[in-house]
Amino acid sequence: MWREIWTSYGGRIAGVSVGFILGLLYFIVGFWDMLFFGLLLWIGYAIGKMKDEQRGPVFPWQRMLEWLTERWRPFK
Question: How far apart are alpha carbons 67 and 25 in whole angstroms?
């Protein structure tokens, strides 16, 4: 029974749960703290999604290092 409810209404249940938790967070700590928490949550989700999809590193360090050494090569 619970599995049927979850498969039918899982997104709605998760959305209401997150909304409820964020609403409590708003009442407890304030708007800007809640907004910052939401930003951190979104960043974590985006990084996790990239890892799940195996798109490579979040920040291309090697490419950035090559660009910096080419750009600021002493005495070209």
Answer: 43
